Amino acid sequence: MSLSKSEWLALEKKANELRNLCLDTTFWAGSGHIGGGMSAMDIFTVLYHKYLHIRKDDPNWPDRDRFILSKGHAGIAYAPVLCDFGFNDKEQLKTFNHTNSKMGIHLDSNKVIGVDASTGSLGHGMPIAAGTGLAARVLGKSYMTYVLTGDGELGEGSNWEAAMTINHFNLTNVVTIVDRNHKMIDGDTEDVMKLEPLADKWAAFGFTVKKVDGQNIRELCEAIDFALTATNPVLILADTVKGAGIKMMENNYKWHYGAINDELYAQCKADLAEYYQKRVERVEREAK
Amino acid sequence: MAGGFVYTAVESTAMSTAEYYGNTLAELGREHPEIVALTADLATSTKIGIFQKEFPDRFFNVGIAEQNMFGVAAGMAKAGCVPFLSTFSVFASLRCADQLHTDICYQNINCKIIATHAGTSFGQAGSTHHAIVDLAVARSMPNLVVICPADGVETANAVRAAYAHNGPVYIRINRGFDRVLYSDGDYGYEIGKAVELHEGTDATIIATGSCAFQALQAAMFLKNVQGVNVRVLNMHTIKPIDKEAILKAAKETGNIITAEDHNIIGGLGSAVAEVLAESDIPVRFKRLGIPDKFAPIGLHEDIMSILGIDSNGLIHAVNDILGRKTDDDDNWEDEV
ipTM greater than 0.85, yes or no? Predict the structure, then answer.
């Protein structure tokens, strides 16, 4: 099912709104994990505005699709997505990271509506996703589980334990997406702890690997469409840009976590506007 | 304990403690289709395999991957299943402590960890397989109920009670056959309520797990041979600890000894010490267990004897705390 131009443009518009809301939240919070938030925003957008079967007025609907954010530090991007969707009041974003806020760096599933699992310690998302996938089988449910991991966190062995489980039980109801932004706190993934050949690793664990441009909404949609009809587990290796949309942050590992003052904020806003313009131009060029 | 089979001492001659668990879980599985079971390549050793035989579609062996198992259980529970997961206590508490903390306890997941081979019950395996810090780890996890049953019958009660409790529960049970403490399961088992096994006003032994049987033996000897009346409390629940029973014992007996097959740091002894230290009751107090070192290799009973947490060691401890000498019985004339 190909993505229509109007749908693509609508998703671009939403992604742009969410990038801006993530920036605003980082500004209100004073600082945040904005680099890995921005790299994942197109993935969030596609899931929450095209694929996830969820109900705004019934967040605990038992048959809903699940989304597990394994890279829990991207809460600064995830919270805006959940507020924008309508699960939580957008005003809450202004309290992000403030004392006694319901929203901290790593979102708590018992405090923030719409969060399927509290994460933060890395390497936890895939096992939990394997669990929701197995549970669907036991309970006779047809919901999907999507799990988004970082790339640096793939150093945690528990991911690969879960990969074995997903493969062993052939959990085709679990779609694993890696936000391959190439950067971790201490530098480039290949300098800190080599991940490549990453696609081969996943293939060796039994996954069909779909490598896509993680900042290309159409490619992301095509990969998810493929996963939804696959007969064995699919790994979407989303090649992304850390800090996507904000020039000074792009591909700069030092923006894994950073603070934004008034001056930077204005520059970031201008960058995001320019980035959005280029994204729209690409749709105009490439949409069928 | 309402519902379920009432096991008797007769079964204890034929069933190991873990078999009580496996059979009770299978019974629960017949009543509750949402129960699922997980293990990490220890279906046979932990006896969770009894459930597997009856409910193969609700049983998942994740291979030797305990961290993954805890995460999978959390996911299954989030989706509406009630997972029981079993591995050895030493792995359940240490190998996947992060998952226990974050996936299970932080999210207050309704899953039950039945951890086997507790304490030094797998004595010959050495310290890599002794669980001497699991109570300390588990007790410090918010939301987690921590239970250490005294024998097979009590294990059956605890497993049923764990299912009835909505939230995470950690139960540590021993490898092999425990000494039989309870002739049947109908003694009013309740999470968080100590069971008085023996009356007494001179001193109290607060014991958990395999030490409960030993404490009762010691109390009977002390009463019948030395005329010393020792209260014995089976503190099967380490958290929430039964403060009321501890304070009552402190007031009425003035001498408290704790006995556990665990490091004296962080387990039952520490839990009781915390209650006593925050009370205004003056009391003489002694913790018995593994004295902050790794235990020797050997048979469980031998290790308990070496550690002084068998009946003989407890008799000495009671006499010590009361300032009495434990008479060496060199008179063989009265032996029968």
Answer: yes
